[in-house]
Amino acid sequence: MAAELELALTSLFNEYLAGPANAVLGVFGITAENPKHVWPNWLVMELLVVALIMITVAVLRSQLSAENPGKLQHVFELIYEFIADTIAQVGVHHGERFIYYVGTIFIFILSMNLIGLVPGLDSPTNSVFVTVGLAIPTFLYYNAVGFKAHGVRYLTQFMGPVWWLWWLMIPIELISHFVRPLSLSVRLYGNMFAGEQVTGVFLNLTYVVIPIIFTLLHIFVAVVQTYVFTLLTAIYIGGATSDEH
């Protein structure tokens, strides 16, 4: 079954890099279920996205110009302004501190969501492993900046606005916070997986009008889900760093 669903690029990884991958797993005491097919599609696609982003940034950096900015620089400047505005709109104080993390999340997720439109490639966000891998660092990040902003006093946020209800509010707040990674990961995974399946079905049925419609729908879902993940990340950061909260 793995061989039937294996992408061409994944097949190359398994053919030439299965040994190194098994060696790395062996260091952690892990044995692959199928040593000849140790590379899954989602991991290969994720690495491809990382490589493409790094190449794009390298090209952009070599062409940066204040006097005569190119089209690629304009695109990234628009993304920067969009992320800055999003962070400001949710009320994050001194939000410029968080643009790099939130912006990286935005570009990374959007790239992974859209790469599945390329024939022969899949969106890594179709895998729950990828979406969980995005949600957990976000959970750790906003709690870390909360501790950095408030110190140990950050823990008082879990007690609620009325101190004598701490015994009720602490469990509720803890559950609320620990559900956030699950919510972030399942929402992104579910929408991208469903969109990919629907697009794939209609591509197999017809090849003219309907595929175009569902391709546009897939792009729309990819952009919206990227924005939702980014917006929620900014909201969580704002809640963790807010003095009023």
What's the quick description here?
With 245 residues, the chain is mainly alpha-helical. Helix content is 72%, strand content 0%.
If you had to describe this structure to a student in words, what would you say it looks like?
This protein has a domain at 88-241. The mean pLDDT is 88. The protein is globular and about 60 Å long. Helix 6 (99-114) runs antiparallel to helix 9, helix 7 (128-150) runs parallel beside helix 9 and helix 8 (166-205) runs antiparallel to helix 9 (209-241). The N and C termini lie far apart (51 Å). The chain has helices at 2-5, 8-16, 18-27, 41-63, 71-89, 99-114, 128-150, 166-205, 209-241. The protein is an all-alpha fold and 245 residues long.
Chart the SSEs and their pairings.
Elements lengths: L1 H4 L2 H9 L1 H10 L13 H23 L7 H19 L9 H16 L13 H23 L15 H40 L3 H33 L4
